[in-house]
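PROTEIN DATA CARD
Card holder: HTH-type transcriptional regulator CmtR
Chain length: 111
Origin: Peterkaempfera bronchialis
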Amino acid sequence: MLTIAPEVEMLARFGRALADPTRCRILLALRDAPAYPAELADVLGVPRTRLSNHLACLRDCGLVVTVPDGRRTRYELADPRLGHALDDLRTAIVAVATDRTCTDAETQGCC
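Structure generated from the sequence above:
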């Protein structure tokens, strides 16, 4: 039986989270500052129910955490280093692939 190293599983989980543009936008918004779901929905122009599903995914992946604030719940990155990682990844991707368009991975392969 093949055993997957914990680091590989964590990277795959991060990749799955980044595979959706809305989740990317949420992570980038939370990189700038913690936020409440209603604020995120307004800023991102996403219906609140859809945003809630994406936040649950990111929370289940361990990338964001909830912080109780009275009767409200605030979301923030689980670790400040995730913000730095997002910046580094974004910078690296732009540097190496500015002229590429990624196609649908299921139908045509990826990049």
